[in-house]
Amino acid sequence: MALQYKTIHPVKYLRDFLAHNVRPDGRGLLKFRPMALNVRSISSADGSALVKIGNTSVICGIKAELATPKAEEPDRGFIVPNVELSPLSSSKFRPGPPSEEAQVASQFVFDVILNSGCIDTKCLCIVPDKLAWVLYCDLVCLNYDGSVLDACILALMAALNTVSLPEVEYDHEKSTTTVKTERVPLKILSMPVSTTHAIFDDEVLLADPTCEEEDLASGTITVVVSEGKLCSVWKPGGSPLTESQMDGCVDRAKNRVSSVLDLINTALKSSS
Amino acid sequence: MAAMAEDQHVLRKMFCEFDVLSCPDGSAMKYRNRSCLRPNKLIIDKACVEAVYRPKVGQPRVADKTKEKMIGNTCSSAILSTLYPRTSVSIILQEMQNSGGLMACAINAAYLALIRSGIAMKFLVAAVTCGITKDDKVILDPDLNKVKDCHTELMFAFDSIDFNIVAVDSSGQYTEEQYQKALSLCKEASNEIFDFYRNLVKKYACCI
Amino acid sequence: MKVKVGDVVVPGDIAEEISRVKSETKCVLGPGLRRFSENVIVCKSGIFRKKNPNTYWVDSHQRKYIPVRGESVVGVVVNKSGDIFKVDIGASELASLAYTSFEGATKKNRPDVKLGDVLYAKLKIASLDMEPELECVDSKGKQSGMGVVADDGFLFTCSINVVRKILSPKCPLLKTLGKEIPHEIAVGMNGKVWLKARSIKETIALANAILATEYITNEETNAMCCRIIEALQEVN
To answer: Which PANTHER family does this UniProt record tie to the protein (chain A) (predicted)?
Structure first.
């Protein structure tokens, strides 16, 4: 019976739950889903991590390649994040070129890397104007069940922490490169943590929404906190929120940081 | 010095011209000092609000998709979409010149076009940009020269009823205090934009 | 912001006056006003108007036509499929027109309508959720001025406000010009106007006069009409 009710009146179904301060999956309104993290899952990649937030799972693989830096920034390397929302993750997505949502997510991840300054791209440069590292960060969503941006940032940060780059020698006269076997871990300067809330019925805030909740919501807000500072408050339209509601989102995002960082540290320790 | 300080809390001059385009249902050209956009709008079949953002040069890129999402969602939150079943509102924005505060300008221009088109809306939205300088000052609506001194830029969009926050976008790192300071400053400044909207409607009301 | 009758309003304003109307009296909310719980909120920008006893609306600028049942419109036939003509009336969707909705039309006696013809017709069905449907006969089965207009002439689009303005009995434009310049005109409530005068010059002059009325008052319209008539006489 409940299933039919849910199919016919999805909004009312959710509203009935929320009236009793509980969500369809049994969580409180402002409770987060359990997270699981596995690092170095892909042995062929230079760094990788698999994240599960509830049913949402995102795998991140980082591949380092050598390239010539851009002429306008000769002393900097590159980080290229790419979020892939494949059809296998959700029936919402179709095969073919990246959907708009995937493009927006890629851009968001890129902005977070840039704003938080978690990696100094200058460290990725080997010889100015000649040789630099490019970190291709491929984030593939395996199961799409809401809060994908949070999962992407978490997977990316965990994966970046596992990256180690081989030392490279560059011969200026012959312009040849020799890649040595010694590997140096990548320097991570900060650890951004992202937290998403959904707004339902213009006033109820739901932390860490599932896919169903996101679809019914009238807006989402994503707050990224890094080292006690905010590095992105992203609310692309949707229902207006009061200042106190916004502050609540920021506070919860701040409080969540320590637990997420603990998770990353534990995962890193157990794998090394 | 006092004049300087005051200057930092003043929005740049805004200009708007309606009906620059003849084919769409509503159009507005808005100049904000030197950043100007030309939006126009047509309704086709479907039931959604979509934004199309065209950069000044070249093809739209991934970063422009994020802008489109921001503008589209910000507009759809105010439009009474239930009154227009089976239609789609396309908001087409053409960047003409960028001298800072592009996102806010785009949102304001989109709203001006919506006002002109006569689409029913719950409220209006005004977007304001502010920057945080390296010496920790919050300046309103920085132009391109001032942006260079800023480590952070924040954009807020407010609704016209309770001045609640409709959209936020940011770049750079900032503390919560800085965020609050920027928020209150932008909120105050949004009044000016709402007055600007009202005055424009007044100016063009003579023909109704 | 709270607003009074006659004010310039923008979406989100509260029309306080209407909330004070006694609950037992009837109150009509026209376009641009909506009820949200206790308050009546303005949802279009323009001028807040009232007609006694209790009719309120917002006069706003609009170019897009939203079909309303019973309104007369001008459209162009763009497609012919089986028994139905598709007519572009400037709404979000093409309107359909059955070939039997012409005076005296039967299965054997089909009306002569070609692609690209301009029609003056009435909206038989207009609902937001359905395709609009046109007819070219009145309730008595008579043509009464509707149907395909002449092949020549000039069709142009203007904002819906202009159409309302020139059709209002107070507007002197067509009366004044009509005395001096004989012409045929079909004005659709959808902002499309078909026009034909004796010469191309006169047709263009009339079309420009109609478009110019958007931004001027009735007194100014009178002056403008005189100028146009003088200018045309000089040319001739």
So the answer is: EXOSOME COMPLEX COMPONENT RRP43, EXOSOME COMPLEX EXONUCLEASE RIBOSOMAL RNA PROCESSING PROTEIN
- Binning pLDDT at 50, 70 and 90, where does residue B182 land? very high
**Has the ipTM of the complex gone over 0.85?**
yes
- Distance to chain A for B78, nearest Cα, Å: 8
Nearest to B189 by CA among B152, B151, B138: B138
Residues 6+ apart with CB under 8 A from A255: none
Q: Where are the domains of chain C?
A: 2-60, 72-148, 154-235
Residue range C2-60 forms a domain whose CATH class is mainly beta
Residue B206 lies in a domain: no
**Predicted local distance difference test score (pLDDT) of residue B11:** 55
Assigned token pair, A264: 């990353």
At the top level of CATH, which class does the domain C72-148 belong to?
mainly beta
- Closest chain C residue to B121 measured between Cα atoms? C43
In the structure encoding, which two tokens stand for residue A265, read together?
């540290």
Which amino acid is residue B202, in one-letter code? K
A39 in Cβ contact with A162 (< 8 Å): yes
- The distance in angstroms from the start CA to the end CA of chain B is 47
Say which CATH architecture domain C154-235 belongs to. 2-Layer Sandwich (3.30)
3-state secondary structure B48-106: EEEEEEECCCCCCCHHHHHHHHHHHHHHHCCECHHHCCCEEEEEEEEEEECCCCHHHHH
Confidence of residue B12 (pLDDT cuts 50, 70, 90): low
| Residues of chain B contacting A201 with CB distance shorter than 8 Å | none
Please, which chains are in contact with C (at least 3 CB pairs closer than 8 A)?
A: B
Return the closest-CA partner of residue B123 out of B113, B106, B111, B105: B111
| Residue whose C-alpha is closest to residue C186's, from C230, C144, C229 | C144
Give dist(CA A152, CA B131) in Å, integer. Answer: 28
> What CATH number should be reported for the domain holding residue B57?
3.30.230.70
Whole-angstrom distance, CA of residue B36 vs CA of residue B96: 5
pLDDT digits (tens, 9 = 90+) for A129-156: 888 999 999 999 999 998 999 999 999 9
| Chain B partners within 8 Å of A232 (Cβ) | 170-171
- Phi-psi category of A223—alpha, beta or left, where left has phi over 0 and alpha has psi -120 to 50? beta
- B→C contacts (Cβ < 8 Å), by residue, are 24-26, 43-45, 78, 80, 83-87, 115-124, 159-161, 194, 197-198, 201-202, 204-208
Judged by CB atoms closer than 8 Å, whether chains meet at B164 and A241 is answered as: yes
Percent of chain C with pLDDT over 90: 24
Who among B85, B123, B205 is closest to C11 (CB)?
B123
- What pTM, to 2 d.p., does this model score? 0.87
Query: Hey, how many other C-beta atoms are within 10 angstroms of the C-beta on A174?
Result: 7
Residue C214 Cα to chain centre, angstroms: 13
Q: Domain ranges in chain A?
A: 28-271
CB atoms within 10 A of CB B86: 15
Q: Is B155 on the interface with A (CB under 8 A)?
A: no
Closest-CA distance of chain A to residue B68, Å: 9
| B183 has a chain A CB within 8 A of its CB | yes
